[in-house]
## 1
Amino acid sequence: MKLSGDRMSHLSLEERTESVNCPSHGPREVRNFKLFAEWGKPECDLCEKEKRLAQEQADAVARAAEDKSRQERMIRQAYDRAAIPPRFQGKAFDDFAAGDPQAIAALITCRDYADQFPERLRLGSSIMLCGNTGTGKTHLACAIARSAIETHGKTAVYLTVGRAFRMVKDTYRRESRKSEEEALSFFGKPDLLILDEVGVQYGSDTEKNILFEIVNERYEAMKPTILISNLALSALAEYAGDRVLDRMKENGGKLIVFDWKSYRGAA
Ligand SMILES: [Zn+2]
């Protein structure tokens, strides 16, 4: 409020002590002020204090609710951007069917990785999940991504290598507005990158090279990658080549072989 010069002249505060008889707190001596040439209504100081505290508490509750909803919105956005396939959205470690002892070991390794994600991210430790189809590799990888996003507030992106190859190959066309480097730099951005279906089709030299470039982009940025393949380890090693495998193993990288029998359809 802007006060006119005339009113300003009354602003020199006069103060006096008055008695009030508060229904809650009994008789109190309180300060009262003269404002705009009039004495205010004396109020119980304890009631005023209670009112102020209640208001502060209400404000804090409102702020916390606002923070929570903002955080939930950010998690939802990060989850949308992660592009997890609908089949694996919302997958958690708890609903992983681990009947086989090896499956239990795989579950524990992946859950530990997710629990320690900030440290794994700091070191750039990757994981390779390879072996039989239907053993839950994508399920576990998506559960790691979910934990990275929801528990640790990090970002993750899921995509098949087929899609990753197309994204890079699209830049080879003359009309492409993006350069290969720009396409590759996309893969270096998320805190966690999941590349699924490695080796699903016969890989041309160009594709093998793109796979290396993506893994290398992550490696140079010291960011973790999860590679998923239905190939057995020896076939994956041959497909991906030493350059890829070496980078995946660095900085505490882990390999989990899923060679027990499929549980898909067993339920
Ligand atoms: Zn009172």
Note: Residues 22, 24-25, 44, 46-47 surround zinc ion (CB under 6 Å).
## 2
Amino acid sequence: MTSDAWNPDTYERFAGLRARPFWDLADLIDTSTPIRSMVDLGCGTGELTAALAARLAVDGAVGVDSSPAMLAKAEAIGQRGLRFEAGDIATWSAPQSVDLIVANASLHWVPHHVTVIGNWVRSLASGGQLIVQVPANADHPSHTCSAAVAEREPFRSAMGGTPPPDPVAANVLRPEDYAEILFDLGVTDPHVRLQVYPQLMESTSHVVEWTSGTSLTRFFKLLPDELHAPFVDEYRAELFAAVGDRAPYFYTFKRILMSGRLP
Ligand SMILES: C[S@@+](CC[C@H](N)C(=O)[O-])C[C@H]1O[C@@H](n2cnc3c(N)ncnc32)[C@H](O)[C@@H]1O
């Protein structure tokens, strides 16, 4: 069993596809006034944090993550004004108010979004901005198939009899809920949209590689090492049965992008 299931190399195999929603999100930032400070919550390996901090020319940027493996990679970046720290985004709030809070593909890992987003918006300076992207693809076979395999033996027992739920299914709200949450927190003109990303994969097998870097990590965290490969094999078979063994495979991926600015 591994305590830190995030593997930076596996995660970065699809860096191009993963970066696209990040930059769509970044395009929602209002740059009409200077942005001096930013925090990236669930920053992962930190490359995108560093690139955005450089694009905005902020004075100070902090990346926060709970994975030692991801943070170790981030800390090697060494960019002026950029630092990384360990933290839990579920309870995070800023010691000093910040101009921009970013959370790309991280919020869905924690529950209670009304409370969490409330903590984040209250951490913003006057005129501060929040940009958040969460996956909304829990109903796709790439996710439902792994949940189905996790319910079978020997995996179920190996995970203590209760496989962890899909965090996207459990935690992610409807787009309109996020618009209401932001409005209730004082964001008068929230922008929230559901976007379908067309991810052309070389084959169906590449979807397995994709999920190995993200949604399967919750199972890898609980399963003993010797059950990782059998789990992946059974998941691949289940996925092929559901969508076919195709090359290329057109993998649709829904995401919610949101931004809001305080007056
Ligand atoms: C899918 S990666 C996204 C990384 C980065 N934001 C990007 O766009 O490439 C999700 C990141 O969220 C982090 N994460 C998940 N739950 C967290 C928590 N409760 N507190 C802090 N970081 C968390 C993981 O360690 C991982 O690095």
Note: The chain has a mean pLDDT of 95.
